[in-house]
Amino acid sequence: MSELAPVTGIRNRKLAMWTFIGSECMLFATLISTYMVYRGRNLIGPYPHELLNVPFITVTTFVLLMSSLCMVLALAAMQQGNRRQARFRLFLTAALGLVFLVGQFYEFNHFHHEGLGLSRNLFSSTFYILTGTHGAHVLGGVIWLSTLFLRLGSGPIDAERIETVEIAGLYWHFVDAVWIILFTLIYLLA
Amino acid sequence: MAAGHEHASTRFYVAIAVILAVLTALEVMVFFIEALRPVLTPLLLIMMAAKFFLVAAFFMHLRFDGRLLNVVFAWGLVVATGITLALMAVFGRFS
């Protein structure tokens, strides 16, 4: 049972998720810092401008943005008590997240075939670790949303369950927000 | 904000998503325009910040939620940005 925190007036689970998100900002900051510090200091190729495919990544970025829309609409459907719409939108969110992951897998596979192994150069190490960590977060979100989709098949739609979807949504939107930064820093400012 | 209370209408969220999509398209357009190369970095950073703000404020409902949640997130964000800028400065990325 989620209870009101005595001082803050905010439910503990929600406050905990926001605190977690605050700490995640610092995790990604260290990875982004490492990427930015070593950017353009490769001694051997392949180099980023030879590999990065902006049009392709723009499509996967768009997919992730639309998944965020589905997520926020799933929460709205929950708040309206519309189970069918909420489940459908949760399913769409997870499916779009999966499409993003398939895109990332395709990109990694392509880079690998072009000779960009994990320890090939400074770009490969920092790029794979940074985008791979983000991808792991997307995978975690997809699993979480899929679980929610299944669990919402039965039982009442009460405040507790609405809050559960809201918290999962916070995590998903954060993952989307991080990608907004990575898309610009890695692909457009390359 | 009570868990069962709606924050905004469906139309509003769709409008935010459309703005995000348009900003992404603009980012890519700017990237491919040679004439904008001298101002590429500030332009892209401004659009990136705008998109980040839209997601945090409206999709994550910070605009509608309590001040404490804004402070918790802003604190993490400020420290994270500070870490990044400090490390870049230490390693001479601004010189």
What can you tell me about this protein's structure?
The complex is a heterodimer of chains A (190) and B (95). Chain A is mostly helical. Chain A has one domain: Cytochrome c oxidase, subunit III, four-helix bundle (Four Helix Bundle (Hemerythrin (Met), subunit A)). Chain A is 78% helix and 0% strand. Chain A has helices at residues 12-38, 48-51, 54-79, 83-113, 122-151, 159-188. In chain A, helix 3 runs antiparallel to helix 4 and helix 4 packs antiparallel against helix 5 (122-151). The N and C termini of chain A lie far apart (48 Å). Chain B is mostly helical and 95 residues long. Chain B folds into 2 domains: 1-64; 66-95. Helix content of chain B is 71%, strand content 0%. Chain B is built from 3 helices and no strands. In chain B, 22% of the residues are buried. At the A-B interface, helix 1, helix 3 and helix 6 of A face helix 1, helix 2 and helix 3 of B.
N-end to C-end Cα span of chain B: 46 Å
Give the percentage of residues in beta strands of chain A. Answer: under 5%
Largest beta-sheet details of chain A? none
User: What is the typical, i.e. mean, pLDDT of chain B?
Assistant: 91
Question: Would you kindly provide a brief summary of this structure?
Answer:
The complex is a heterodimer of chains A (190) and B (95). Helix content of chain A is 78%, strand content 0%.
